[in-house]
UniProtKB/TrEMBL annotation:
The chain holds residues 277 to 562 of 625 of the full protein. It comes from Lentilactobacillus sunkii DSM 19904. It is found in: Cell membrane. Belongs to the cation transport ATPase (P-type) (TC 3.A.3) family. Type IB subfamily. This is P-type Cu(+) transporter.
Amino acid sequence: ATPTALMVGTGRSARMGILIKNGEVLEAVNDVKTVIFDKTGTITVGKPQVTDVIGNSDKVLSIAASLEQSSEHPLATAILKKAKEAGLEMTPSQNFKAIEGKGVQADVDGESAFVGNDKLLTDMKVSDSLKAKMTTLQHQAKTVVFVGQGDQIIGLIAIQDAPKPTSEDAISALKSKGLKTVMLTGDNQAVSQAIADQVGIDQVVADVLPGDKADQVKKFQQSGKVAFVGDGINDAPALSTADVGIAMGSGTDIAIESGGIVLVKNDLRDVYKALELSKKTFNRIK
Ligand code: ADP
Ligand code: MG
């Protein structure tokens, strides 16, 4: 009877767009205490838009876009889109380098330039007025990147990635079952907290380098089983480390391969459904 119940259970969930790839997942679900979410593309829509440019906006945007032409980061896509809309010219860049969790660097017009967060500004002095502008934008849930040329900061670009309309309901359903919800992200603390507040997430772990996401999952595993929900290339190790890895169907191939459960409809509310269905199926076959 055991395999039949499993087939019936997983067949029903598959029709709902919830693919359960193995029995191990079903077994772990009963004991899940914490659900950890990636931010970009999982809690948020994943299509960031440029909202503010501080400084000489044409110059700031065209230098930033010249650099970001070589990057595939969602922030790069947003900056390129805005520069194109403004009809700005882009200069080819040389010696492009992506610095994980920080930003990008290259030579533009024979001068070194960069776009990225404050971790990239090793020795540069940020004026108090620029710091104040940055803080204000971050509290509006906007990610702020600095644009620099030579040894000067020439401006700021603020980029907003709105939460998915379903994220708040998805989180509150999990919390109603007594589960702890956590957001894990490489983005800055202030921005991440502002987004977490919008959707009701219990705890934020920000400024996490892509290679450290799996270690963060292990920390939470000290207080019970963990489900991790993500979509990106850099989420794959966390998805495999978690007791229950849940990948968004819209995610990268490697994320989908690493998840024990795949949400085909990309509806975050299906995290709750997937956990409930798995529990029912497991308790039937036990
Ligand atoms: P997430 O977990 O949100 O996907 P990432 O680790 O990809 O975060 O990026 C973390 C931070 O590094 C970004 O919020 C940004 O400040 C900076 N960053 C990374 N790549 C770029 C880029 N191409 N251009 C500008 N900033 C970048
Ligand atoms: Mg992501």
